[in-house]
Design goal:
single chain, alpha/beta, TIM Barrel, Immunoglobulin-like, eight-stranded mixed beta sheet, six-stranded antiparallel beta sheet, 11 helices, 25% helix, binds 2-acetamido-2-deoxy-beta-D-glucopyranose
């Protein structure tokens, strides 16, 4: 089943729909789907909020709780309104919203731009403004799922149906002064990285994630071709996190610790929304430490630099070749805090990884750099010209490099890429 379409957070503001200050940085929060699918109620949602507050994930920046599909009744009421399931939510959604607000979270919800959600609940096609208003009065938004109507009925494609939702968001903003953050999902079928930014603050780029390394590697491979689409106010959505789901679900998730670290590193540095999808109330300290990695969250939430890291070398395969089991391994980018590197071992065994600093566009030749390790959370030394280290199978290094002044004088005359350096007389320096 496909799930997780629009994630919408209602934010009180007098500004209007898009370009209104909403969604500048990737959303951070919780979504019910990966851990609970359709099997959750008000108690479960509140338990997640309580657990996130207690274990420090709220303080780390996670501040939205998204109800995925299955919170409504299957039929609209006689006046055409969606109704929250009174068995699952006996006190109603406004009461739940109030409870999670007290814990520092906004309540948000999933909706659908078609006639039905993936789970067969009411979609919002033709009811966009009505549904948004109900959600805003509850201080939340619904997102819907995409049960795609026959095109001969709506005469719209994905762009058209999401345009309706986006226009409704703008109209509701003008009418009642409530803004929404819209995260859309059509699984990357119609290149949302091209048009998603016009209509939303985030767009899913791929099919649904699974708690296995093969799924994580395939999504990273996808981003290696679409990283350029992320920036401030618009984000590639790599899907809800599977951190913590090892041993959970059917068939059970089976990511190793190293794989889980690589998963979180990629999502954070590629500027994906960071949406927790595990049962936090039952999570291990290791899971909480990964989700709460403040060094990576700081880069994900960089207020000045919205761009994703990008690959500078593929590694196992030729550059610019898609390979879902061996995605690009060598990535870098800028941040307000230094030059970021993500080095990923895509192989099933430990591997030695090595690169020249100047392969990254953001490094200045002739400088040496302090190295900060974003998993060890400490400075680990000085990088001069190149770095070499071993990574475990599917392991990752997440490094932040800061300028440490000119490299030692004894090194001059050498050059990483011979045709990029010449003596003053014009002759190439060829080591
Ligand atoms: C939610 O479900 C749990 C069982 O999974 C139950 O103990 C709890 O009372 C339910 N809460 C509500 C509000 O129905
Ligand atoms: C349908 O729900 C809306 C919104 O909650 C409410 O205002 C309306 O009275 C309901 N209509 C019926 C027939 O129950
Ligand atoms: C739309 O297409 C479906 C499937 O091809 C067909 O059954 C239906 O009659 C068509 N409806 C209209 C209004 O043309
Ligand atoms: C992980 O689980 C998936 C799904 O059951 C399976 O296809 C895959 O082979 C498993 N991977 C390992 C390394 O056990
Ligand atoms: C909590 O996690 C353990 C270990 O992964 C698992 O065996 C147990 O079923 C989980 N309990 C609940 C309530 O999810
Ligand atoms: C991915 O790369 C591996 C290693 O080079 C190769 O064996 C495999 O055939 C490639 N897969 C695809 C789909 O290109
Ligand atoms: C990196 O971003 C910072 C903050 O915006 C900026 O000051 C700096 O010039 C950027 N560096 C590069 C190499 O783009
Ligand atoms: C790495 O740089 C050092 C200088 O710091 C140089 O001596 C060494 O040959 C370089 N190694 C590689 C593999 O380029
Ligand atoms: C070598 O470095 C020194 C300063 O450390 C500089 O004066 C000199 O021009 C450099 N030589 C070359 C060939 O780059
Ligand atoms: C790294 O730099 C060395 C010279 O120090 C050069 O021989 C080598 O080709 C470079 N490798 C890459 C991948 O740029
Ligand atoms: C250019 O300068 C370099 C370094 O001084 C020297 O080795 C080389 O022979 C010179 N080339 C020519 C054509 O003069």
């Amino acid at each position: 089943m496909f799930i997780s379409a629009l994630t919408v957070a209602a934010l009180s503001s007098t500004a209007f729909a898009l370009n209104n200050g909403v969604g500048k940085l990737p959303a951070m929060g919780y979504d019910t789907f990966n851990a609970f699918a359709g099997n959750y109620n008000a108690t479960d949602v509140l338990d997640q909020a309580l657990a996130m507050e207690k274990c420090g994930l709220a303080a780390a920046g996670y501040n939205i709780i998204i109800l995925d599909d299955y919170y409504a009744l299957k039929k609209r009421n006689a006046s055409g309104y969606m109704v929250a399931d009174p068995v699952k939510f006996p006190d109603g959604l406004p009461a739940l919203s109030e409870q999670v607000n007290k814990l520092g979270f906004k309540l948000a919800a999933y909706g659908d731009n078609g006639y039905e959600t993936c789970g067969g609940y009411p979609g919002s096609y033709g009811n966009e403004e009505r549904d948004l208003k109900v959600l805003s009065s509850d201080d939340l938004i619904a997102d819907g799922e995409t049960d795609i109507p026959a095109d001969n009925i709506t005469e719209q494609n994905m762009l058209g149906r999401y345009t309706r939702m986006s226009n409704a968001i703008e109209a509701v903003a003008q009418e009642i002064g409530v803004t929404f953050e819209l995260s859309l999902c059509e699984w990357g079928w119609q290149q949302p990285w091209v048009w998603g930014r016009r209509l939303s603050q985030a767009w899913r780029i791929d099919g649904d994630i699974k708690p296995y390394w093969s799924a994580i590697a395939a999504i990273i491979d996808q981003v290696s071709f679409q990283y350029w689409a992320s920036g401030l106010y618009g984000h590639n959505d790599m899907d809800i996190l599977e951190v913590g789901n090892t041993g959970q679900g059917t068939p059970p998730g089976n990511m190793t610790y190293e794989e889980t670290k690589s998963h979180f590193t990629a999502w954070a540095l590629m500027k994906s929304p960071l949406i927790i999808g595990t049962d936090v109330a039952n999570a291990t300290q290791q899971t909480i430490d990964i989700l709460g990695n403040r060094d990576l969250i700081k880069i994900n939430q960089d207020p000045n630099v919205g761009e994703s890291i990008s690959p500078f070398r593929w590694g196992v395969n030729p550059d610019f070749v898609s390979n879902s089991t061996h995605p690009a391994e060598y990535w870098s980018g800028n941040s307000s805090y230094g030059v970021v590197f993500m080095i990923l071992n895509s192989q099933d065994r430990p591997a030695q990884m090595a690169f020249n600093l100047t392969e990254s566009w953001a490094i200045r030749a002739g400088q040496q750099y302090h190295v900060y390790d974003m998993w060890q959370h400490k400075m680990t030394g000085l990088a001069v010209r190149n770095m070499t280290f071993e990574l475990p199978a599917h392991g990752v290094a997440a490094l932040l490099l800061t300028d440490a002044g000119p490299e030692p004088a004894y090194l001059n005359g050498s050059c990483a890429v011979y045709y990029q350096c010449a003596w003053p007389n014009g002759t190439y320096i060829s080591n």
